[in-house]
Amino acid sequence: MATTAIPAPAGGRLRLLPELVRGSRPTVAVVAVLALISAAATLALPMVAARLIEALQTGRAGGWGVVMILVGLGATVAGALSAFLLARTAQGMLLRLRRRTMEQAFAAEVRETQRMGAGNLSTRLTVDAMNVKQALNVGPLQLPLAVLVLLGTIVIMAVLDWVLLVITVLSVGLAFAGVGVVIVALKKRYGMLQGAVGGLSERFVAALDGLPVIKAHRAEGATLDELTRDAEDVRRVEVSVARFESLLGPVLNLGQQIALVSVLIGGGVRLVDGSLTLPEFVAFLMYLLQLAAPLMTAVSGIATLQQGLAARDRFDEVFALAPEDRAYRPTGSAPAERTAAEAHAPAVSFRDVRFAYDTEPVLDGVDLHVPSRGLTSLVGLSGAGKSTVLGLVEGFMTPTDGDVRILGRERSAWSLAELRSRIGYVDQRFTLLRGTIRSNLTLGLTAAPADDRLFDALAAVDLHDVVRALPDGLDTTIGAGSDLSGGQRQRLALARMLLRDNDLVMLDEPTSQLDSLTEGKLRSVVEELAADRAVLVVAHRMSTVQQADHVIVMDQGRVVAQGTHHQLVRDCAPYAALVHGQLLLGAEPELAMA
Ligand SMILES: Nc1ncnc2c1ncn2[C@@H]1O[C@H](COP(=O)(O)OP(=O)(O)OP(=O)(O)O)[C@@H](O)[C@H]1O
């Protein structure tokens, strides 16, 4: 079922109650009416009991007995139904809340989402959502109902005997003052607890991601110790929370016990001197006992509410993540057809482009161009800024300064979706997603291609026989790490790119050695692609730069030269150093000089 997410909240804050009511007004109205019926029936019950006792004294109790059963049943049924309807409405809101959290995580810049952390973000969908759910059960229903019953009970008690009420209020009031202090302390600790749980989850997920490396370095013990320290932090905060939570019940109980004893003594005296009748005294005592339930609900409800509000603050952190497409034309506005001039313009051109991840500049006035056809290699020492250039073209990040034109058009004239649909991108790690070979190949495609087309793409990277030999063929699940070898996974990622019709292909060449067969295949795939489009490869291999029509040399965030391999070996000292120093994989001095 398609679901609408929660829209961006005004003022950047999520407002739980309006969001709960949004779209469910009739249900919320029914919940309110049922809750009122339940409260009225609960309040009426002791009065009916008093009438029953009076009737028993006169020997005509039958009618009041039936009324008492009906009122009791009415309170129970209305209470249960309102609780269920509210819970169902709250689940609808939680679905929207989870959906918006996921949407926001996908819509933000990759590094912003990564900075927040996968484990930390996923606790929003689990622990934090549960805390919001509890608060939603309590806030709009149990808490107001408890307060209503509490006030109604107090009014009726005042009518029955105001002197006994004063005795009750004095005894319970003291306990309440203590409870208020505890609740304020709890709100702060709930926030700390949710942060600590998010941190633990984040670090555990990160450790699981690196499990093979941890095992290879026999670092399980050390990693476990670190995670245990995080778990101990959680325990410390949890103990602190428990210390305060455990005070709530006993303090209130004590207040109630004192009130009961005082009322029994005071009531006995007033009964003897005739200021109070026996049915009135019984009714008063029943109301006093009935006071306990709404009091406890109110107190624990306020604590639960604090927990929910702390979770709400954590959702707000995710909702505050800025969407990455602010610097682009809005998606959905009509895309302009590429003009002939645009089609012949350089596929990428940078003029004085600057970029910093934090304060330190990573690109420092980069000027480069990638021709509209042919293979362009981007080379440079590790950390020179090559992957950052690809990231800026893909729109993963926004330059801090300078002009970026892609496929002949100003970057901001593209919508991000439109831009990315024109670019084929294969990342350095050849990332595949958990799923089947088919779902990986067709990732993001609106119409699934026929199997023949998928096998054509697989054949282009020599993977068709491997996939045919798998028990489930294209529907074999990969991603658990064991179905395909590293090289086969790389070729699958390339086949995925081949299934898209792109004007620009960007390939972040892996630094790991490919076997010569795979490397040869990669070269011919790249050659074929470059025949009628622009291919930009971050090159770590001698074979790739020799094959390139155009080479761009980067050093410490700047482009130091552009040209052909032979020109650059002759004229560009840093490039010659890369080649002669055999810093490019497979570079041999005599080969390089050829
Ligand atoms: N997400 C990030 N946050 C902060 N700094 C980063 C981030 N990614 C890269 N950097 C820094 O930016 C600089 C350029 O990195 P980049 O990955 O573009 O280099 P590269 O030339 O592609 O290197 P390599 O050949 O090793 O892949 C490096 O100094 C790196 O430390």
Automatic annotation (TrEMBL):
Bilayer topology annotation: Multi-pass membrane protein
Chief localization: membrane
Subcellular location: Cell membrane
UniProt keyword annotation of Transport present: yes
Superkingdom of this protein's organism: Bacteria
PROSITE patterns, A to Z: ABC_TM1F, ABC_TRANSPORTER_1, ABC_TRANSPORTER_2
GO CC terms in record: plasma membrane
Tagged with keyword Disulfide bond: no
Family the UniProt entry places it in: Belongs to the ABC transporter superfamily. Lipid exporter (TC 3.A.1.106) family.
Protein name in the entry: ABC transporter ATP-binding protein
Organism field: Nakamurella flavida
